[in-house]
Structures are given as structure tokens and as C-alpha cells.
Design goal:
The complex is a heterodimer. Chain A is an all-alpha fold. Chain A has five helices and no strands. In chain A, helix 3 packs across helix 5. Classes of the chains: A mainly alpha, B alpha+beta.
């Protein structure tokens, strides 16, 4: 008889344990499910507002609007051909600039290239890149001077 | 089974097995087997359950979500330009409907709604409140603010249906390409119409070949030119010569695609693809190319150009009186109608027609738009000598702007046919092996186009730092009495840059530009549309990856391109 009771007891305990476990797990699942659906709703809402914001962004960055703002607030105008340069040309310009002993307002070094090689490249071109670049340098010097002036003004303000 | 067998053998050994005992023994054995099986399953379930609840910590299998949630909400895909700027998108809105079964006081509800939305039609409102539908539509596409107001009315039975509405963030900038759609998001014009099924079925964004930045420049410059010369309409087009991709397409006047009902027919009319026009002297590009291609005429051949041609009651004249005789090059550069007509008479109608056919100028062009016009040309049997001569300088044949641009691009592109498209191309484009003209002819035409811009009628299109080549065209407009007007013209310009290694083709025209003091009383293409093309090229080229060239390099490249035709130019 005792053997039967022991066996019954063991099974009962096991059963209770497993039921408790099952209950807690299913409870957890229900909670998680409701959280998932809530999160899903939130994601959908966020994505919807993201979509709307993208449309608004596109509306605000409409080139015609940007152009108007740039003209009005930044006093910008259409870029002239001699103000456009590629990275390669800028490297050369940086070298020419140093050679021409122009004032260096910004602490910027030309990208590491053997100087004589750059020099040779400039010399070899039959149509005087230097002269062409000089126009750009002048523009930049003017630009950088104005920046330096503004920085000086800003510096004064911050000191006071 | 083995357990059962053992029991049997034991029973047999003891030799006490009555049938009853045997049955009990078998039953016991079976129960044991079942219990053991149960125990195994039970243990398995317990183990699994413990694993799920405690050990795995909820990190079971991650749920794989490939679909975006917004895709479930939005049912029409976006349209982008080639750089990913948004041209058309859909935003979720709500539509207001009423479930009449739940409405307590229909009359009060109606009055309140009418007060909130005065634009609602009384009759339709009444019908909605009398309908038996569970959701009778009252107003489409409410803004969030309007939704709040409706909610604050506190009317029972009003419901919001999730809806979506097409918006065009760049307004009228690309309206003739993108098009517009109706309140139910069905495309009514442009890409929206042509690609309606694609936009509804595939929710990934549709990338067009347009470049919004270039489109903006084109739009601005054309608008300004139109204003300056008081023109009635304007057209602009930029095409990638290698791929046929249309980078920019503008037709003015245009309209706001969000309010198509307010636009006039004039504004809705796509002058790039739907309108067919007599293009004038731009056709001399084809005439000269054909003349050189036949081999019957050499570039240095000289034609008498002093006297107008009188034929069958018509007379072919030049706008200014030119020298006594000119070479093929000079005829092109000063744009002599008389010279062109004489060249055409030499190779004849048959060759001309076949050539225009190969350039795609005799049939409707294929492009991703519904609004495409069919060219107007003399019927096959009536392609007379007069037709041949007038067509040589672009009269007596009407084609659309896109067609003309594609044909000119083909000539410049070493004769390889350029197929225009509005959809962004990915991957390499294979060059058509069957060339319409030889590279030598193409080269000669390019040289002549460069000369037109350097020293001919297109001087005002010479953008600083760029190798621009082009051809002016000033066509007389047929007035309402079906006669050519003497004071109404269509000024067009077809250009390519850099002309020695052509990458982009620009075409623009102004309809009926007026003379102004600034142009010294001229209203021809060279004075009106050429400066606009110069502005467009000098601003758009750097964006398209064509950088300005230093002056000396420009000279060297000029000399190189002009060398093959130099002998045909007079010394003066």
C-alpha cells in the first residue's frame, strides 16, 4: 500500500509542478502577446509618421524653396565655372598656393604627394594650369579672408 | 513485445496459468507498458516546458519580419528621382463616414457637420444620413486637425475609415513626367498613369531617370526666358546620350498636380511628348548627316545660295541674304534654307524618307507615357520634291521634342540609336550595333555643331569652360488661317556637351518669343533660347559630372574637333 501512496504522491507533486509551470508560461505568453501587438501598433504608427515626415522633408527640401532661402538668407548665387574644381585640382592648388607664398589662413596641408611630382605635372601641361588655378586661388583667398575676419569678430564677442 | 513474451514464458514455467490468471497478467503487463510510455511523454513535456519557461528565457525563435509595417498601410508605391528624392508619395489620411443605425439625431448631426465643413453638399449629406449602409461616405481625406474637430462634435455613429492620399512634394517641378492621380489613387496622367499597375502591385519605390536638381535648373531658366521674351510656351529636355535616360523634361506652362481640376488644358498639355511641331533648322543636322552619309555630297561641296528657290508657287528664302555660294559646312553654320534645299534635291525624297524612318522620326516614339503624339508627315505617295526640300530645313514635317532629341542624339552618338526612357537604368547599356551613320559623319556633324556655337548662330549658347555644340532652329508658326505667320515663330536649340565626347543632349524651345530691346529687336533662336541653354548647361554640367575645362585645354580640343572640316570653311 505504502508503495502505491508514494507513487501517487510523487505523481501528484509532479502534476502540480507541471501545471503551475504551464500556467505561468501561458500567462507570460498572453502578456507578451499583448505587448507584441501593442509594439506592432506603435511600430506601424511610427512608420506611418516616418512616411509622413519623409513627405514633409521632401516638401521642405524642394530645390526651388531651398534656392529661395539660400538667396534670401545666405546671399548665395549661381556658381561660376571658374569656382568649380575636382579634388585632384585642389591638391595641386594647395601646392601652387604654398609655392606662390599666399597667406595661409586655414591650417590645411596638401595631401601627401611628392612635391616634385606635382610640380612636374603642373609644368608638363601645355596650357598653363597655374594661371587657371590662380583665379581660383584668388577667389579662395578672398573667401578665407572674409572667414578670418568673421572669426575675429566672433572671437571678440566671446571675450567680452 | 519482449516484456509480454517474458511474462508468458514465466507463466508457462510455473505451470499455474489458468486462462483467467493469464488474462490478468497480460492486462497488468499492458498497463505497465502504457504507464511507461506516459511517463516518457510526461517527462518530455515537463522538460520542454521547463526549458521554455526557465532556461531559454523567452528567446525562442525570433519572428522573421521582412515586410515593413507602413507597407501594410500605404497601398501605392513612391516615385523617386534618380538620386532618391521623393517626387510622389502617399500619406495616410482618414475618411469620414456614418453608420446611420447608430445615429441618434440625424438632423442635428447634419447641421453640426455642415457648420464644420461648409463645402459639403446638402443633398449628398442628406443622402448619406438616409442610407442604410454601415458606412456611408461623407468626406474623404480629413487632416488630423479635422479629425479632432469631428471627434469633439460628439456625434455617435460617425466613423473614420483609414484612407490614403497621393501627395507631390515638389509640386509642379516634374508634373508632366510624374503626372497625377485621382482621389482613389488611380493614375490619370504621366508615369502615374502609364505605371499604374506597377505602382499598385509592387510597393518598392519606382526610380525615374530624372534628376530633380537638373530639373529645377531647367524649370527656372525656361520660366525666366519665357517671361523675358513674353513667350507663350516653353519646352526643355536633357538626355543622357549613352543610355537614353531623360535627365530632365519640362513643359511650360504647367500646373500643381495636387489640384489638377484647376489647371487649364494649356497647362496640362505635355509639349515634350504630346505636341508635334515643325522644328525648323534643327532638321539641318539630319539633312547634313544624310548628305555626307550618302557619299554623293562632300563637306567641301559648294552650292549657290544667293537666289531664292521658286517652285510650284512656293519660294524658299533665307532669313538674311548670304554670300553667292557656300560649302556644306557654311550652309549648316549660317543655317541657309536655300543651300539645305539644294542639298536635299540632290539625294532625293526616297533616301530622305528612309533616313528619317531609321531615325524614328516617322512613327510614334515609345516612352513610358500615354501622352505621346504621332508625327505629321507627307503621305508616302505624296512625298514630293517640294516636301523633300522643305523637310530639309524642318518644315512640312512635325515631330515631338523627345523624338527630335533622340534622333539628334543618335547622329551625335556615332549613329548608334538612342532609345529614350524615363526609368532609371541599372547596369551596362549595350550599344546598338546597327549604326544609322558612320563615325566619320557623326564626327563631322559634331564639328559643325561646335562651329555653330563658337562662331555661328548659336554663339550665345557658348557656356564658359564647356565644349558646347549645337544648332539653332527658328520655325515659322502656322497661324489659325493655316498660313505661315510672318511674326510668330518657334525658337529652338539643340545642344550637346562635351561635343567632342558627347555625354548629354539638351533641347529647348520657346513658342512665339517676342522681340525685346535687349536683343536688339531680334527674336530668333540664337537670341532667345540659346542664352537659356547656356545658363542651363553651365549650372547643370557640374552636377552631371562634367567639369569645366581650362581655357587652353578648350582651345586644343576645339582645334582637334574642327580639324577634319577646316578645309571646307572659307578663310574669312
Amino acid at each position: 500500500m505504502v508503495r502505491y501512496y508514494t507513487s501517487f504522491f510523487v505523481w501528484l507533486v509532479l502534476f502540480i509542478c507541471v501545471s503551475a509551470m504551464l500556467y505561468s508560461t501561458s500567462n507570460e505568453v498572453t502578456l507578451l502577446k499583448s505587448r507584441i501587438s501593442k509594439l506592432n501598433k506603435e511600430i506601424a504608427m511610427e512608420q506611418t509618421s516616418l512616411h509622413v515626415l519623409k513627405a514633409e522633408w521632401a516638401y521642405l527640401t524642394n530645390p526651388i524653396r531651398i534656392e529661395k532661402q539660400a538667396k534670401k538668407r545666405l546671399n548665395m548665387s549661381v556658381i561660376a565655372a571658374n569656382k568649380i574644381a575636382s579634388m585632384d585640382e585642389l591638391n595641386k592648388t594647395a601646392y601652387v598656393e604654398r609655392r606662390a607664398d599666399t597667406v595661409n589662413f586655414v591650417d590645411r596641408k596638401p595631401i601627401e604627394k611628392p612635391a616634385n611630382k606635382v610640380y612636374a605635372a603642373t609644368e608638363n601641361k601645355p596650357y598653363g594650369l597655374d594661371k587657371f588655378n590662380q583665379g581660383r586661388i584668388n577667389d579662395r583667398v578672398r573667401f578665407e579672408t572674409s572667414i578670418a575676419k568673421r572669426e575675429a569678430v566672433i572671437g571678440n564677442i566671446s571675450i567680452q | 513485445m519482449s516484456i509480454v513474451k517474458t511474462s508468458f514464458s514465466q507463466i508457462k514455467k510455473r505451470k499455474i496459468a489458468t486462462p483467467k490468471e493469464r488474462a490478468v497478467s497480460i492486462a497488468k503487463d499492458r498497463i505497465t507498458i502504457i504507464l511507461v510510455c506516459f511517463a516518457f511523454v510526461w517527462a518530455g513535456i515537463t522538460a520542454g516546458l521547463s526549458y521554455v519557461s526557465w532556461i531559454s528565457d523567452g528567446a525562442f525563435k525570433p519572428v522573421n519580419r521582412s515586410k515593413s509595417y507602413s507597407e501594410n498601410i500605404i497601398k501605392r508605391s513612391d516615385i523617386l528621382d534618380r538620386n532618391g528624392s521623393l517626387l510622389a508619395t502617399a500619406i495616410p489620411t482618414a475618411s469620414l463616414c456614418v453608420n446611420t443605425k447608430h445615429v441618434l439625431d440625424a438632423e442635428e448631426a447634419r447641421q453640426k457637420l455642415k457648420a464644420l465643413f461648409p463645402e459639403l453638399d446638402n443633398q449628398r449629406l442628406r443622402r448619406a444620413f438616409e442610407s442604410s449602409s454601415s458606412c456611408a461616405m461623407i468626406k474623404r481625406h480629413l487632416s488630423p486637425e479635422q479629425q479632432v474637430r469631428v471627434n469633439s462634435l460628439g456625434i455617435v455613429g460617425l466613423e473614420f475609415l483609414p484612407d490614403e492620399r497621393r501627395v507631390y512634394p515638389v509640386s509642379n517641378l516634374a508634373v508632366h513626367v510624374v503626372g497625377y492621380s485621382d482621389i482613389d489613387n488611380n493614375g490619370l496622367a504621366g508615369i502615374e498613369r502609364f505605371m499604374n499597375d506597377r505602382l499598385q502591385q509592387d510597393l518598392s519605390p519606382l526610380e525615374l531617370s530624372l534628376d530633380l536638381r537638373v530639373q529645377t535648373i531647367m524649370h527656372r531658366e525656361l520660366s525666366e526666358a519665357m517671361k523675358e521674351f513674353n513667350a507663350e510656351a516653353a519646352v526643355g529636355l536633357i538626355m543622357d546620350i549613352a543610355t537614353g535616360e531623360v535627365i530632365s523634361m519640362v513643359s511650360l506652362p504647367d500646373f500643381d498636380p495636387s489640384k489638377p481640376a484647376r489647371a487649364s488644358d494649356e497647362q496640362k498639355f505635355n509639349r515634350v511628348t504630346l505636341g508635334v511641331y515643325e522644328m525648323g533648322s534643327s532638321f539641318k543636322i539630319f539633312n547634313t548627316a544624310l548628305a555626307l552619309e550618302t557619299g554623293e555630297i562632300k563637306i567641301g561641296d559648294v552650292f549657290e545660295t544667293a537666289e531664292p528657290i521658286h517652285i510650284g508657287g512656293f519660294s524658299i528664302k533665307d532669313m538674311e541674304k548670304h554670300k553667292h555660294s557656300m560649302s556644306v559646312s557654311e550652309i549648316f553654320i549660317v543655317s541657309s534654307n536655300i543651300g539645305s534645299a539644294k542639298m536635299a534635291r540632290k539625294f532625293g525624297a526616297k533616301k530622305q524618307r528612309a533616313f528619317l524612318e531609321r531615325l524614328g522620326l516617322t512613327e510614334k516614339i515609345s516612352i513610358e507615357l500615354m501622352e505621346v503624339g504621332t508625327p505629321l508627315l507627307p503621305p508616302k505617295g505624296k512625298w514630293s520634291d517640294i516636301s523633300t526640300m522643305t523637310i530639309s530645313f524642318g518644315h512640312g514635317i512635325a515631330v515631338n521634342a523627345l523624338q527630335l532629341a533622340a534622333a539628334a542624339a543618335t547622329i551625335i552618338n556615332d549613329g548608334h540609336f538612342v532609345n529614350p526612357t524615363l526609368i532609371k537604368k541599372t547596369g551596362e547599356t549595350v550599344k546598338d550595333t546597327d549604326a544609322v551613320v558612320s563615325p566619320a559623319t557623326s564626327n563631322a556633324v559634331r564639328a559643325l555643331m561646335r562651329l555653330v556655337v563658337k562662331s555661328g548662330t548659336g554663339r550665345r549658347a557658348n557656356a564658359d569652360g564647356y565644349m558646347v555644340g549645337g544648332k539653332t532652329g527658328t520655325a515659322d508658326i502656322v497661324a489659325k488661317d493655316k498660313k505661315y505667320s510672318t511674326d510668330a515663330r518657334r525658337a529652338s536649340f539643340v545642344a550637346a556637351f562635351p561635343i567632342d565626347k558627347p555625354r548629354y543632349l539638351v533641347f529647348a524651345f520657346l513658342d512665339n518669343p517676342k522681340r525685346s530691346a535687349k536683343t536688339f529687336g531680334y527674336a530668333t533662336a540664337g537670341w532667345t533660347v540659346a542664352p537659356a541653354v547656356r545658363n542651363i548647361i553651365s549650372q547643370a554640367a557640374p552636377m552631371l559630372g562634367v567639369l569645366p575645362i581650362p581655357e587652353e585645354e578648350l582651345k586644343a580640343r576645339d582645334d582637334k574637333i574642327i580639324a577634319p572640316v577646316k578645309h571646307s570653311l572659307s578663310s574669312e
